[in-house]
């Protein structure tokens, strides 16, 4: 599955693998793990944005801010 371009740039599989390997306790990383972490992060960010958008609408604001998180 291909990530959206912005998300691929920000949290690509290679970057996730590099972050995971920065921990000394992490040994070998299966090839599927960065893909799964990437997808989980994508879903988390989508849910966060959706909820933030709903709160922004409920408060009648025209611009999202950190207070809406």
From TrEMBL:
Signal peptide location: none
A single GO molecular function term of this UniProt record: core promoter sequence-specific DNA binding
GO CC annotation terms, alphabetical: nucleus
Residue span(s) of domain Transcription factor CBF/NF-Y/archaeal histone: 14-69
Compartments, as annotated in UniProt: Nucleus
The keyword Nucleus belongs to this UniProt entry's keyword annotation: yes
Record has Nucleus as a keyword: yes
Record-linked InterPro entries: CBFA_NFYB_domain (IPR003958), Histone-fold (IPR009072), Transcr_DNA_Rep_Reg (IPR050568)
Source organism superkingdom: Eukaryota
UniProtKB keywords: Nucleus
PANTHER family in the cross-refs: DR1-ASSOCIATED COREPRESSOR, HISTONE-LIKE TRANSCRIPTION FACTOR CCAAT-RELATED
Record-given protein name: Transcription factor CBF/NF-Y/archaeal histone domain-containing protein
Top-level taxonomy: Eukaryota, Viridiplantae, Streptophyta, Embryophyta, Tracheophyta
